[in-house]
Amino acid sequence: KDTPGTRWMMIAVEVDESQEVVAQVKEELAEQTKRTGRQQHLSNVARLISKNPRFWDFLAETVDGDPGEWNTARADHWMKSIVGMGSKAELDSDAPEGVKKIVAFHRLREGFLEWQGRNGITE
To answer: Residue 85 in contact with residue 101, Cβ under 8 Å?
Structure first.
């Protein structure tokens, strides 16, 4: 980390023909809204995940401790600190600085989904 060029970060985004960033997450949520008839928000997904006892088990195994030590409030606080947000509503923002938070949330969610798959949890 002290030698220049030994650490880097990349964020890839989809662009359309006019080189405008495609709001892929928003498009996916809009499609989901059409299918379900209910408006979908990424903040709601985050809320549901933090309430999920399986997520608490995931945190106990991958972060620290006993599953009994995790609850909705602690999982919510941990998620906000890892993603870098003060409120889950920031995941629904169009602001450019929100992209980093959305990417971080998706990484966290993907890790949780992979963990569920490895543990035979399909629902």
So the answer is: yes
